[in-house]
Design brief:
By secondary structure, the chain is mainly alpha-helical. It contains 7 helices and 2 strands, in the order βαααβαααα. The chain has a two-stranded antiparallel ribbon with strand order 1-2. The longest helix has 25 residues.
Length: about 160
């Protein structure tokens, strides 16, 4: 996570518009065929692993030390967090260039789900239902930082025994 703001500015909302447009462009211009039926979900699944791994091994080490941005996020979860992917367009371009288009579409769709879900967990008033239960699970991660790293899904927390 790159910058933290008390109030959201245009950069916070950029992910909510840019990445869904990228996914739509992949589908519109990608010549969708049967190959997409398995490649898009596989790309989404790969996103869930990449997100879990980055959260656990990078955000809780590099961006945790010396009062880093991720530590700040844990201490102030109500702040609006800007994720760094759009700030590193060459990295996202590299994903586009090395991944098959339907896989990239699923990967990007996973990022869209991640950004939307993380926003809901921290900024919506959740009273009941599965999203409220998910919010309680995610809040446990903010309090006990060695558990529940997955935001997009808890699957990898089960696999790597970090689910609580």
């Amino acid at each position: 996570m790159a910058h933290v703001h008390a109030k959201p500015d245009w950069r916070y909302w950029l992910d909510f518009y840019l990445y869904p447009a990228i996914v739509a462009g992949c589908f519109v211009f990608g010549g969708v065929n049967l190959h997409w039926l398995w490649a898009v979900p596989l790309g989404f699944l790969f996103w869930t692993f990449a997100e879990y791994w980055a959260h656990r091994s990078i955000l809780h080490t590099i961006f945790w030390q010396n009062h880093g941005t991720h530590l700040h996020h844990h201490q102030h979860p109500e702040d609006f967090v800007i994720f760094p992917i759009w700030q590193l367009p060459l990295v996202w371009l590299a994903f586009f260039l090395i991944m098959p288009l339907p896989f990239f579409a699923g990967f990007t769709l996973g990022y869209v789900w991640f950004v939307a879900l993380h926003h809901m967990l921290h900024h919506w008033q959740l009273n009941d239902g599965w999203l409220k239960q998910y919010s309680v699970w995610h809040d446990r991660h903010h309090k006990e930082t060695y558990y529940n790293y997955g935001i997009t899904t808890p699957i990898w927390d089960f696999v790597f025994r970090t689910y609580k």
